[in-house]
Amino acid sequence: MSQLCKIIPERCIACGLCAVYAPNIFDYDEEGIVLFAQEPEAHQQFIQDEQAAVLKAYQKCPVRAIVLEK
Ligand code: SF4
User: Fold this and answer.
1) Does Iron count among this protein's keywords (predicted)?
2) Domain limits at 37?
């Protein structure tokens, strides 16, 4: 089952944690603000693989800039 993951760059404080936990999913722009590694223009993505890693990133984000929906 896939999971819808959204990112809210306006909330991101560029801490870098999400790409530590899910480096294949999350990346950053030149200011360190979160974006999707495979789809830099998108603000949401269906996650099929690495759901555990994405869940960890979601839990660790200090400002809830990552949102997971079932
Ligand atoms: S963990 Fe949250 S605040 Fe930190 S870089 Fe990722 S989205 Fe931004």
Assistant:
1) yes
2) 3-69
Nearest residue CA, atom 8 of ligand 1? 12
What averages of pLDDT result for each successive group of 10 residues across the chain (70 residues)?
95 98 98 97 96 97 95
CA of 9 to the centre of ligand 1 (A): 8
The tokens describing 64, both together, are 């809830």
Q: How many domains does the chain have?
A: 1
- For strand 3-7 and strand 44-47, is the pairing parallel, antiparallel, or unpaired? antiparallel
Q: What is the residue with the minimal CA distance to atom 4 of ligand 1?
A: 15
Q: Which of 5, 12, 30 is the best mutation target for the ligand 1 pocket, counting ligand atoms within 8 Å of the beta carbon and taking the most?
A: 12
Residue 1 has a pLDDT of 82
CATH of the domain at 54: 3.30.70.20
